[in-house]
Amino acid sequence: MLSPILIALLMGVAYLMTPWLLKHRLALYIGVWGVTLAGVMGQDLVIMTPIVKGMLGFAFLYVVMLTGALDPSWKLTRKLKSVRGIYSILGFVLLIAHPLNYAFEVLSGTRAIPVFGVAAFVIMIPLFITSYMVIRKRMKPRTWTRLQQWAYLSYGLILIHLIVNGTTPQNKIVAVALFVIYGGLKTRLIIHSRTKRTVSVNANA
């Protein structure tokens, strides 16, 4: 499974090329649709496999997810947060190629409907739309934050989808490992935040 490698590369790009990503976000938003279209039209080409199989789109979204579980004091976390919206949009657009690739088989009845995958995709649609800053600015911060919390449900559904519909045992193991890593980091962050808050309260008591 290429996802771990792609995830590492995307984190590296975010860390080293933050200003470039922010400066050229509009060009990236336009270009990614071309890449997705190329993936759909050239789905039989080996080079398009990471796009057609959803690996690249998942890698972008995993980085978005992981960012919320990292220590906010880290330089890496600050850089990832600054491009989180960009990665969210790029990841969703790239992910579109994955369901389109199997749409014909599903509609013809030769492939069962991947319920968990479809559900995760549907939930991500409003999250994707509100990732655009022009739309986000029109929303109340509290409303936007509450909407983004639905992402946790989509993460869970994606995990189930990967386990149920994974093509090989190795892919399923990698998927579980990635989510275990995320869960561990998120739990650590929550415990650390609560401990720090308790210490602060006691100090001011």
- Residue-averaged pLDDT, rounded? 90
Could you list the spans in which at least 5 consecutive residues all have pLDDT below 50? none
Residue share in helix = over 70%
Number of helices: 13
Q: Terminal Cα separation, in Å?
A: 52 Å
Tell me the strand percentage band: under 5%
Described by the principal axes of the CA atoms, the overall outline is globular
Largest sheet: none
Number of domains: 1
Radius of gyration: 18 Å
Oligomeric category: single chain
The SSE string, one letter per element, is: HHHHHHHHHHHHH
Beta strand count: 0
The class by helix and strand makeup works out as mainly alpha
Q: Can you characterise this structure?
A:
- With 205 residues, this protein is mainly alpha-helical.
- It has one domain (3-191).
- It is 80% helix and 0% strand.
- The protein is built from 13 helices and no strands.
- The chain has helices at residues 3-16, 18-23, 25-41, 49-52, 55-67, 75-82, 84-95, 97-108, 115-129, 133-136, 141-148, 151-165, 169-204.
- Helix 3 runs parallel beside helix 8 (97-108) and helix 5 (55-67) runs antiparallel to helix 7 (84-95).
- The longest helix has 36 residues, at 169-204.
- It is globular.
- The protein starts with a helix and ends with a helix.
- The model has no long low-confidence stretch (mean pLDDT 90).
